[in-house]
């Protein structure tokens, strides 16, 4: 089985993000790291590929930079990567991103597309579903467990109250929740091999995408203003006189945790 | 529980711009060690150390390894799983040559990886560290058959190794050991005796343990000239590589220690049950000490690395505490102000001492490691010898200076925490307790100082030491502009150290050995501090050139650290000169009986 995994390079979360004061876009240094939430999807893909003697191709969009984040993903064991890196794409919204990724995925003729649920620097959370729609694939979102049985996928979908079990024929798209699996740590050998693995870097033109349909102008949306998040307000103090646990239970119920 | 984040930017900067990795890159076997590779390897190793190993440290300290009474030792919860992942990820093998199944990284880079594992949990790190020694021993002196049998699984750390030297009456004086080895009919040997202080001598992390044991054969000459080296596996290995019978090696007990509680320090008994434990002679009879010395440099450097690594861990915890903890007002602050303690000059002094000394140690240790690499792989024989001599001088300094600093700086880490630092729950005291052993084992720091003064000063008729001082003075002379004050302090410290070295050299010729021995420890301190200043000065010079790929704030910090060290540490070097040259007379002025 050939599997595509959507991944993203993001600025190191350990350092505060800088926004361009004019465009309000995240400024991206040459050194970006792999979005940690992508590691779950990669792990699921690697396990499925190992079980089916398959391969894993990473698909990404954004400034390639020095490819540090992509190499991190390759070091986990993916076989190759496609990074659509084109200055024209700067400022693209979620739908454009989905179109571009879909165009890159189509060229790879894969049996399965895996993504995270949302990126850590953008948080739109809709790109996986959009890719599925564009490619005409069933979208199996928020998977907490993915199995390949008799040529079909069996997925446990996380829901607010539990999980649904769904099955689907292939090809399909699956979005994987954080914590679904324990991502492997790259091995020393994997890191050394990652340097040699093929990374294709097509442009919009290579993918046959109309330059007018991408970027800030082609996204049909604009950022009008950016405001800092409101400062955290002071919490509530509850003095325990032996009954405070009831308050905790009430709060947990309000949060629908129990 | 404090977190640990590997200081990968400083590690990379120190390798590339301070210690001189570029010379190593001119060699074909290390040409691939470029910036991308360092970043990739350091990133992932650092993540592994932070996420998998660092959380073990506190469990390892509070629970520790436990002797079960039946001769087995149980490691603390989580150790087995973490060790397994460590082996699977391939980190233990990264620094070995590819020829024996290693990752082919130079020792300089492997030192940085080792630093991460030690900083994450020193007790844990000792298990693979002892294995490295076993690998060196077998790859240098083992027979082809012995290499085929043991080396593969030791390189990967699937099996662990030990160094079995010490006996109750034979500590610093290894020559006094009495463990016996007698030949059996089949060409193997039978060992009997009791050894103590055997690090990771018994445990449940690996399916086999390969002991390297020093023992005496029948008719061996007394002292160090009569010591032979044996392989004694916990489980005998069948010809097909599978494990056979349990060998007659028993762990009688483990020590209750000040620190490194997860590292079982074992009393091992050989041949309790019958005619002796099965052993295999390494190389020739009576050559054991010579074989031991060939691996001494790496082992001593690794112990110096413990001083550095644990200081880094203590610094990270102390710095984050000093940023958060609010006490008292600053000079000129408003009444009622509660300022983070990092704003008080004396707290800042302690943090700066920690940080500057850590950067200084990292420079000296990496230069030491690269000297070992270069001494093995340079094409030119003369340059190879020069690097070998440099490594010989730097190694006792790296070991003793860095491990003493480890104790000193981890103590400052406690001090910064105030009363909370003395409370075990805070976790600041563990770093001090763990680091304390490094000044003792692998040759006490007193022995390192003796080695430096008695053997390294006369090396090559004093030429090797002279060349080192010339290198330092040359770099000092190249500093210009704002860096000139750093150059002046460095030059003064170097000249003071060189003057002591000259006098010691003269005294050695005159046979005044006790006078040299009496001043050896302050001399080693002078050398360490001076060379630390040298490395920081090189860092400042490199930072001024603004190399690509580094944040300007990081480069500015490197210059500030060098300036601080020049103002606060280098001047103290000159003050030690008097103590070095005082001679032994005053030290023995009070009659021995007056100490009773």
Summarize the SSE layout with pairings:
The complex is a heterodimer of chains A (258) and B (596).
Chain A: E1 2-6, E2 9-10, E3 33-34, H1 38-52, E4 55-61, H2 68-76, E5 80-84, H3 94-108, E6 112-115, H4 127-135, E7 139-149, E8 152-158, E9 163-169, E10 172-176, H5 188-194, E11 199-200, H6 215-218, H7 244-254
Parallel strand pairs in A: 1-4, 1-6, 4-5, 5-11, 6-10, 7-10
Antiparallel strand pairs in A: 2-3, 7-8, 8-9
Helix pairs in contact in A: 2-5, 3-4
Chain B: H1 8-19, H2 21-25, H3 35-53, H4 56-62, E1 66-67, E2 73-74, H5 79-88, H6 107-120, H7 122-141, H8 144-155, E3 160-164, E4 180-183, E5 189-199, E6 209-215, E7 228-233, E8 235-237, E9 243-246, E10 249-254, E11 265-270, E12 277-281, H9 288-294, H10 296-324, H11 345-377, H12 381-416, H13 419-422, H14 428-435, H15 445-456, H16 463-477, H17 484-509, H18 513-518, H19 520-544, H20 552-568, H21 570-575, H22 577-580
Parallel strand pairs in B: 3-6
Antiparallel strand pairs in B: 1-2, 4-5, 5-11, 5-12, 6-7, 7-12, 8-9, 10-11
Helix pairs in contact in B: 1-11, 1-19, 3-6, 6-7, 6-10, 6-11, 7-8, 7-10, 10-11, 10-12, 10-14, 11-12, 11-19, 11-20, 12-14, 12-15, 12-19, 15-19, 16-17, 17-19, 17-20, 19-20
Could you walk me through the main structural features you see in this protein, from its secondary elements to its overall organization?
The complex is a heterodimer of chains A (258) and B (596). In chain A, helix 2 packs across helix 5 (188-194) and helix 3 (94-108) packs across helix 4. Chain A has 258 residues and is α/β, with parallel strands linked by helices. Chain A has helices at 38-52, 68-76, 94-108, 127-135, 188-194, 215-218, 244-254; strands at residues 2-6, 9-10, 33-34, 55-61, 80-84, 112-115, 139-149, 152-158, 163-169, 172-176, 199-200. Chain A has one domain: HUPs (Rossmann fold, 3-Layer(aba) Sandwich). Chain B has 596 residues and is an alpha+beta fold. Among the domains of chain B are: 8-65 and 76-140, Butyryl-Coa Dehydrogenase, subunit A, domain 1, CATH 1.10.540; 160-286, Beta Barrel (Butyryl-CoA Dehydrogenase, subunit A, domain 2); 444-590. Helices cover 55% and strands 10% of the residues of chain B. Chain B has 22 helices and twelve strands. Chain B has helices at 8-19, 21-25, 35-53, 56-62, 79-88, 107-120, 122-141, 144-155, 288-294, 296-324, 345-377, 381-416, 419-422, 428-435, 445-456, 463-477, 484-509, 513-518, 520-544, 552-568, 570-575, 577-580; strands spanning 66-67, 73-74, 160-164, 180-183, 189-199, 209-215, 228-233, 235-237, 243-246, 249-254, 265-270, 277-281. In chain B, helix 6 (107-120) packs across helix 10 (296-324) and helix 16 runs antiparallel to helix 17. Chain B is globular. The chains are: A alpha/beta (258), B alpha+beta (596). The interface between A and B is medium-sized, with 16 and 19 residues.
């Amino acid at each position: 089985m050939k599997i595509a995994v959507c991944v993203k390079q993001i600025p190191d979360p350990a350092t505060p993000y800088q926004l361009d004061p004019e465009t309000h876009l995240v400024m991206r240094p040459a050194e970006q790291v792999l979005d940690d939430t992508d590691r779950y999807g990669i792990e699921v893909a690697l396990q499925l590929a190992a079980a089916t003697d398959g391969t894993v191709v990473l698909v990404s969009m954004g400034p390639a930079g020095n490819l540090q984040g992509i190499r991190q993903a390759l070091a986990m064991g993916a076989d190759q990567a496609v990074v659509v890196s084109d200055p024209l794409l700067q400022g693209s919204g979620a739908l454009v991103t989905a179109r571009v990724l879909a165009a890159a995925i189509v060229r790879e003729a894969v049996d399965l597309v895996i993504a995270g649920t949302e990126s850590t620097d953008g948080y739109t959370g809709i790109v996986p579903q959009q890719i599925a729609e564009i490619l005409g694939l069933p979208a199996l979102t928020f998977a907490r467990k993915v199995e390949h049985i008799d040529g079909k996928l069996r997925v446990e979908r996380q829901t607010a109250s539990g999980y649904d079990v769904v099955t689907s024929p292939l090809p399909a798209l699956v979005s994987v929740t954080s914590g679904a699996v324990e991502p492997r740590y790259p091995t020393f050998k994997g890191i050394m091999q990652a340097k040699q693995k093929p990374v294709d870097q097509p442009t919009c033109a290579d993918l046959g995408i109309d330059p007018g349909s991408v970027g800030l102008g082609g996204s049909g949306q604009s950022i009008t203003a950016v405001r800092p998040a409101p400062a955290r307000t002071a919490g509530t103090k509850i003095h325990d006189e032996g009954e405070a646990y009831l308050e905790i239970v009430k709060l947990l119920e309000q949060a629908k945790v129990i | 529980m404090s977190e640990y984040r590997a200081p990968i930017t400083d590690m990379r900067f120190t390798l590339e711009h301070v210690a001189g990795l570029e010379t190593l890159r001119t060699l074909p076997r290390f040409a691939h060690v470029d910036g991308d590779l360092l970043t990739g390897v350091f990133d992932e190793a650092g993540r592994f150390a932070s996420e998998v190993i660092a959380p073990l440290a506190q469990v390892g300290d509070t629970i520790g390894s436990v002797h079960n009474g039946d001769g087995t030792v149980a490691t603390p919860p989580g150790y087995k799983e973490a060790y397994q992942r460590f082996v699977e990820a391939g980190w233990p093998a990264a620094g070995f040559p590819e020829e024996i199944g290693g990752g082919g990284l130079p020792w300089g880079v492997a030192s940085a990886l080792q630093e991460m594992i030690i900083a994450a949990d020193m007790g844990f790190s000792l298990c693979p560290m002892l294995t490295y020694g076993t690998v060196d021993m077998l790859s240098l002196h083992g027979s082809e058959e012995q290499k085929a049998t043991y080396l593969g699984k030791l390189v990967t750390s699937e099996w662990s190794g030990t160094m079995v030297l010490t006996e109750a009456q034979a500590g610093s004086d290894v020559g006094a050991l009495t463990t016996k080895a007698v030949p059996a009919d089949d060409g193997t040997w039978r060992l009997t005796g009791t050894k103590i202080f055997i690090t990771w001598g018994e445990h449940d992390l690996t399916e086999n343990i390969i002991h390297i044991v020093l023992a005496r054969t029948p008719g061996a000459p007394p002292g160090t000239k009569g010591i032979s080296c044996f392989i004694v596996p916990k489980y005998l290995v069948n010809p097909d590589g599978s494990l056979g019978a349990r060998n007659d090696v028993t762990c009688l007990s483990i020590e209750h220690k000040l620190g490194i509680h997860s590292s079982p320090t074992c009393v091992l008994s050989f041949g309790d049950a019958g005619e002796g434990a099965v052993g295999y002679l390494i190389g020739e009879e009576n050559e054991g000490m010579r074989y031991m010395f060939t691996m001494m440099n790496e082992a001593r450097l690794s112990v110096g690395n413990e001083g550095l690594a644990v200081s880094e861990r203590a610094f990270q915890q102390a710095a984050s505490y000093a940023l958060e903890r609010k006490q008292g007002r600053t000079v000129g602050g408003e009444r009622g102000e509660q300022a983070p303690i990092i704003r008080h000059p004396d707290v800042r002094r302690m943090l700066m001492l920690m940080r500057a000394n850590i950067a200084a140690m990292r420079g000296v240790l990496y230069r030491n490691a690269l000297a070992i690499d270069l001494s093995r792989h340079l094409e030119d024989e003369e340059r190879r010898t020069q690097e070998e001599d440099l490594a010989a001088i730097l190694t006792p300094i790296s070991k003793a200076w860095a491990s003493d600093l480890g104790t000193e700086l981890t103590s400052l880490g406690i001090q910064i925490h105030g009363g909370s630092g003395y409370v075990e729950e805070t976790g600041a005291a563990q770093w001090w307790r763990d680091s304390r052993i490094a000044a003792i084992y692998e040759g006490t720091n007193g022995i390192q100082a003796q080695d430096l003064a008695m053997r390294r000063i006369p090396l090559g008729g004093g030429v090797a030491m002279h060349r080192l001082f010339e290198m330092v003075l040359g770099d000092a002379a190249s500093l210009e502009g704002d860096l000139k004050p750093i150059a002046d302090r460095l030059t003064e410290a170097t000249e003071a150290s060189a003057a002591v070295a000259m006098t010691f050299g003269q005294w050695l010729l005159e046979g005044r050995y006790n006078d040299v021995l009496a001043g050896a420890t302050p001399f080693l301190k002078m050398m360490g501090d001076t060379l630390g200043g040298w490395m920081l000065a090189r860092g400042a010079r490199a930072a001024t050139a603004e190399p690509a790929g580094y944040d300007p704030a990081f480069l500015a910090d490197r210059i500030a650290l060098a300036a601080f060290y020049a103002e606060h540490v280098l001047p103290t070097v000159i003050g030690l000169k008097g103590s070095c040259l005082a001679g032994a007379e005053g030290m023995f002025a009070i009659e021995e009986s007056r100490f009773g």
